[in-house]
Every structure is written in C-alpha cells, then in structure tokens.
Amino acid sequence: MKKLIYKIKFLTIGLTLSASMQSCEKMLDLSPTTEYASRDYFASTSQAYAVLYGAYYQLQTAINQEFIYYGEARSDNVKFGGGSLSNNTLSVIQNALDGNLAYSDWGNFYSVIKQANLVIKKVPLMRERGINVRDADYNKLIGQALGLRALTYFYLVRIWGDVPLIIEPVEKETDLNVFKTPRIAKEIIYQQISTDLVRARALLPTTNANNMETRGMLTRGAIDAMQTDFYMWRNMPDSAIITSARLINAAGEPAYATYKLAELYNPNIDYRVSGNSIDNAPYSLMFTQGLSEESIFEVVFSFEDNNTSNIYGIYGNINAQFAARDELAGAFLDTDLRVLTNFRSSTQIYKFFPKTGFDQSTQNDKNVMIYRLSDVMLLRAEALNARNQRAQAFLLVNKIRERAGLTAIAAAEYEAYTEEEAQEVILTERQKELCFEGKRWFDLVRTGKAIEVMQPINGISDPNNLVWPINLNVIRQNPQIEQNEFYK
C-alpha cells in the first residue's frame, strides 16, 4: 500500500465522532460516542490521534476537486474542456459566481477547524486529568492541529475575505448556537494564522515515522512552506526570505535532506523518442504516484480504500470540465519537457495521469499537492527580487528552468530587468511550473494582477469581485453572516 489514508466512521452534528487511520503498519478502530469531546472520550492518545485524523479526512473533503475551482478555474490557465458542461464550471469560468454554487459553501473547511479545535483544547486537558501523553505525541498532536487550523483559515480568507473566527470546539450538540457568529476582519484572521504557524513550527518534527507520513502529514518543513506562502500573500517579502531560507539555503539547495527537486531533464534520456516514456521521469511520478522527494505536503487518496480525489473528469479526459487555455499551452517552448508531463494533446490536461496505461476505474485517486519544493523556491525568488537581490532570485529560477531542459537566463539579461520585469518573469515561471495545481488564481490576486490579466478574458473589473460569494444556505443558517459586497 502506497497511500496514507484517513477514514471517518461516525458523524454527529457535522463532526467526526470517531476516526481511524489505516496505513501499512496500523489501524485505529474506535467506538462511537455521542459527545466525543467529553471526559470519557479523550481517554487515550490513540483517541486523540483519531480526532486529528478526522481533521485530515475533512481536509480531503474540503479540497478534493475544490482546489481546482478555487485556485485555477478563475485564472488564465484554463478554459472549458468541451465535455458535459456543469453549472459550477460555466459560472466560475465566466466569472458569474453566485451564492447558489456548491463551491461557495465553506462548511467543509469549518469541519476541519472543528476537529483541529478539539485536539488543541482537549489534549492539554488529558494531561491535567493524569492521562499519560508522551511529549513526542503531545507535540505532534498539538502541532499538526495548529498547522491544519492555520492552513484552513488561510484558504478561507483567500477565498472569501472576512470570515468567522472559531477557535473553540463543540462541547455538546446544544452548543452549536455559539458558532452563529458574524464574520470578522481578515486582519484578525491573519493574526490567528500567524500565531498558529509559529506555535506549530516549534512543536513539529522535521520528519515523521515514514515517507508517507512525512509528506502526507504536517512537519516543520510544511510549516516553513506555509509561512512563506502566507508572508508573500501578505506582501511581506522580508519575512518570506527568512522562512524560505529554512527550506532553501544560500546556494539554492534544500536545507533539509528530506527534500530535493525531482529529476525531469536527463542528458542520457530523450523523452521525445518512442520507448522513452515521460511517465518514467521522477518529475512525472511526483504527480501520478505522489509522495516524491520534492513533496513537502500533499493530501493523500487511495482507490483501494474507496478514497478517491476524482480529479479525472475535471482534468484528464476528452470530456473533462477544464482544458488548458491555448495561450498557456503555446507559451511553453518546444524544448520544455513540462509540455510532455502537462498535456496529452495540445491542451488536454494530463499532469496528474500517466500518458499511457491509465485505468480510470482504479487509478482515479491522485493526491492533491499543497506544497512542493519548487513552489517555495519560486516564492523565495519573488521575495529576493523585491529586495533587489536579483542574482540570488534568478539562481533559483534557473534551477527550475534547467530541470525542465531549458537554458538558464544569463546574468546580463536579468540584471537589465526592472524589478517589475523580473517579477513578471518569475510569475510566468511559476505559472508554467505550477499550472493546474491550484496556485495561479491566488498568485494573480496577491500580486494585484487579477483584473489586468482576467478582464479581457471574463470581464472581471471590480476588486470586490475577487472574493467568492457566501453560499445562501450558510447565510440562512446564520443570520449574522453578511454576504460579500459584490454579490448583494
């Protein structure tokens, strides 16, 4: 078995009552309870881990296909794929969002937060009650819960802007009304994210028990990546330089032995020659099999455990919801080996699937990549460029280009760039390297380029339109929630 799986077995009031995790080594199987936050439930370390695994399971649900709709579908990377059109796809591509869209509901994200809140509050109480929780387990439980809460709020604030801040768990079913709270300013959410990330980093190890858990669960490196992304979103390049340096040293190499760039260009292999399949390149395997050495954190799925990501159908077949925009597909040079990995036809997105021998019935379980090394390298390049450290920035850009089989950008060329020109080169490299992974829309928004780039494509012109509407069911259930201004 190659995947790390999180299973939920019992649900009450929208939260997991017990959970189990199945891997190659162990299976937790816990009895259900109607109030799993009670004294009687958090009675052992295994029960605490079960609730934590419930948070990972809820994260699977929250970004299963959603990472595409939130991070790609409103960007200049994709167009309608030509298959059976869904209302969700058409509305997002045409920037005709409204509160009836399924993806406008933030409920699955708050399910992650509810699970994390339980762990954060209840595990310390276990020690107060005399339950033996070893330091290593205590730190991993609290650290991962804090990191998951931070990651979830980071998604929420980027998608919807102001959102409710909930940091206390449900104690009883009758306590649900305490969550009927209004949205608060995103700056306060940012403070909570920052605090949680700092606390999480201090607690988490650099690796977990095995490769699956190291890349499928949060580690210190994952927090470093998340902090770098967060600081770039907040336009704080100095802080991003500090956090990214924990992952990437001054020579542009990984600071942790755990990570390295997956090989793509190989002078001894011509992948354009029949018989040399690009599917065998480590870079391609990073997406088709998952858990590569480049991966920092990804959400894992496994068909054999009835746990599928269902990306196929959104990408990957002739009836897919999305295909690559012609402009993006045409921007890759013929010598760029990422073309062979990203596409099976001129615009058919096949990044997550082998180009030959793919079995839809058994292999539709591709992992969702949250952070990988090249992502952080290019964020760091942006931050360095913002501080006029051009040579260090393009050292990183050139490593990504050379990995793809492209020539390096010469010093004479990048030294002649203005800061804005250099930023555009770096963002274009991010677009090519990370296309279809749920990054492009957020890059456009955080750099202030969303309207400039997207207005000619879908007519977006109002900054208030950059966030999503809030689902009408959310507003009906909580009258204190006010709809985002553009959608009133």
Description of the molecule:
The protein is mostly helical. It has a domain of 224 residues: Serine Threonine Protein Phosphatase 5, Tetratricopeptide repeat. It is built from 20 helices and six strands. The strands form three sheets. It has a two-stranded antiparallel ribbon with strand order 1-2. Strands 3-5 form a two-stranded antiparallel ribbon. β1 and β2 form a beta hairpin. α1 runs antiparallel to α4. The termini are far apart. About 6% of the residues have low confidence.
Number of helices: 20
Based on the coordinates given, report the CATH architecture of the domain at 1-79 and 86-204 and 463-488. Alpha Horseshoe
Mean pLDDT comes to 90
CATH fold label of the domain at 1-79 and 86-204 and 463-488: Serine Threonine Protein Phosphatase 5, Tetratricopeptide repeat
Specify the CATH class of the domain at 1-79 and 86-204 and 463-488.
Mainly Alpha
The backbone outline, from C-alpha atoms, is: globular
The structural class is: mainly alpha
The end-to-end span amounts to 49 Å
